[in-house]
Amino acid sequence: MDLRALRYFIETVRHNSFTLAAEALHVTQSTVSKMVRQLEDEIGQPLLIRDGRQLRLTDVGKVVFARGQDAVEGMRRLTREVADLTELSRGELTVGMPPMVNLLFPPVVKRFCERHPAIRLTLEEAGGQRIEQRVAAGELEVGATLLPVAPALGLATRSFGRYPLQVVGPRHAAWARASGPVSLAALRDEALILLEDDFSLTRRIREAFGDAHFEPRVAARSGQWDFLVAMAAAGLGSTLMPAPLLTRLNIGPELAVRPLAEPALDWHVALIWKPGHYMSHAARAWLRVCEEVLAQPQR
């Protein structure tokens, strides 16, 4: 059986469209259609029922789709393992990295590239929840996120940093008038500026507010941590920021900064991977370098 034709068929089913499958595969639609017909001819049975713009699997098509995914994944693993025989003399690695967490990784990237110059390293930015899902699905070998990770994802984790959260906002905010740590209850009626909902930090903050039995008043959202602070400086509301990030910002006199009182709600950063699945030598090397560089006393 032609594995390329099988792959084209699988992508067509996943996208429920010849056109979208062609875009994902970077080929023409006619090529995808031809390969699917070739696979049907080889099997001797129709695999897809073309109903207008919709595609439906036949009984045989369901079996081929289910078993075909195993065959394609097996070939991917074989290819990776054969390439690994060169012992890191070539290859590539993509690491999932949330935009805020990536500020901790320049020393790791530097040492990894110095030690393994033939490995093409790509840092793929996305929210922590998206990174977790992609690692769980096998789309990424390794990534970083915030703990805790949903147990249902079945991911292995390795903590490398735990940092307190700081409340940052206008000096006229009610919580800023008192000295000392700020409780979540003190933020009940405050306008808050948070990261987008696909960020793990936002998930943790919302869970903490839920445990405190009230909803946060979200005035604005952004995917950029420096813009959150800029909006706070403009008087739009208050935000929660990990302590290491504040050292990289110019906090003006118009802003107040106080530690968050809840120590359990911190910025707990970890590496993640899927246990029990093949891990390339490049991914293992990445974890080793992370161990070396990030094994610093946690603050």
Count of alpha/pi helices: 10
Spatial order of the strands forming the largest sheet: 4-3-5-12-6
CA-atom Rg in angstroms? 24 Å
Shape: elongated
Description:
It holds the Pfam family HTH_1. The protein is α/β, with parallel strands linked by helices and about 300 residues long. It folds into three domains: about 5-85, Orthogonal Bundle (Arc Repressor Mutant, subunit A), CATH 1.10.10.10; about 90-160 and about 270-295, Periplasmic binding protein-like II (D-Maltodextrin-Binding Protein, domain 2); about 165-265, D-Maltodextrin-Binding Protein, domain 2. The chain has ten helices and twelve strands. It has helices spanning about 5-15, 20-25, 30-45, 60-85, 105-115, 130-135, 200-210, 225-235, 245, 280-295, and strands at about 50, 55, 90-95, 120-125, 140-145, 155-165, 165-170, 190-195, 215-220, 240, 255-260, 265-275. Helix 1 (about 5-15) crosses helix 2 (about 20-25), helix 1 (about 5-15) packs across helix 4 (about 60-85) and helix 2 crosses helix 3 (about 30-45). The protein is elongated.
Overview in brief:
The protein has 299 residues and is α/β, with parallel strands linked by helices. It has helices at residues 3-15, 18-25, 29-43, 59-84, 106-115, 128-136, 200-211, 225-233, 243-246, 281-294, and strands spanning 48-51, 54-57, 91-97, 119-125, 142-146, 156-163, 165-170, 191-195, 217-222, 239-242, 255-259, 267-273.
